Fold this sequence. Notes:
Elements: H1 4-18, E1 22-25, E2 31-34, H2 46-53, E3 57-59, H3 61-65, E4 73-80, E5 83-91, H4 94-136, H5 145-154, E6 163-170, H6 173-191, E7 198-203, E8 206-212, H7 219-233, E9 235-239, H8 246-267, E10 279-281, H9 286-294, H10 296-306, H11 308-311, H12 316-328, H13 333-340, H14 344-358, H15 365-382
Amino acid sequence: MLSPSLAQEIAGDTSAVIGFNVLITDDAGMVIGSGDSSRVGSFHEASVEVMRTQEPSAHTALQAQQLRGVRPGITLPLVMDGRAVGTVGITGTPRQVGRFGLLVKRQTEILLRESVMLRSRLLAERAAEKVLADIASYDPQVIEGEFINSRAAELGFDLRVRRIAIAIEMTAPDTARALGRSELLRTVGEVFADPQDIVASTAPGWIGVLHRFPERRPVDSVTTACRRVVDTLGARVGIGEPAASVDGLHDSYQDARDALRLGARLNSDSGSGSGGGSVHLIGGLRVHQFLAAAGQPARTRLRARTAAALHAQPDWPVIRATVIAWYESGFSLVRTAEALHIHRNTIVYRMNKIEQLAGHSLRAQPTTTALYLACLADQLDAGV
């Protein structure tokens, strides 16, 4: 529990501050830190009794001569959770150094507790990283899901609990660098604080979350939590869909990353009719996901065969936004006007122009569906 490197750092720094040599022993009475480096590795006999009784002890010069490795001074127990884990000693006459004893003991115990907490946090971070990496790279042809379930259970996570995957990308590099990896994880962990939430760094500036998501909880609760992360850190967020298996969590995490990537591309396109925002749910981006998977050459052919005359117009971004809003509003003039925040008569004017250029009615569903997909494809490519 008490590492030699930490003990040496504490002993050296404290000795310099108080002007008397400070030494620290482990639970076997061996000196593992000292302002006088020649004493490191020696046995300090007085520490054995101090740890047994958990009471401080003072030693005059005559008393110190009768004990192995001991010099005049005081020795105090270092206690963690009711157990003595070592001692701290200060060299000098007991009257000189006695006034420092309790202060040095308490300061050492505080630093020791902080070290234990840091180590525990780092171990927890690595455990979460391991689970998330297993989920992200899962391939049923290579490894069985039950093996990953078992490995996660050893780390305290039940992957059969219903979760939803979230991908977070920091959009403010200066903030990310200033806070550091552990602080970013701590901040996100304060928002997603369920004991079964898995929060891990996946790359510099990227954090993945597998958030516990019970059946009756509304999706709005997740988007609200994600907006807190966005507001606090400056970030973009993608959200997958609920799952309660290794296969499902793998798909949910890939969906969350796709939602983040696609949402960022759509928002970077000023002609988009999809609206702004930094929190993107895959449920509203399934068609975009399909088109992205088709590849850019296929998207280019679709646009060329379906919307060439429209694409050649100087106001193509406006035409594209109108077609998308018209289709997504269920061919309703009123809802389209509301979606684009313009007057109904303006929609009528635009539609007449589009129908003339396209050569077919915008109420003809098969041809309008193809035009709609061509507009989405172009929207994706414009945001690259």
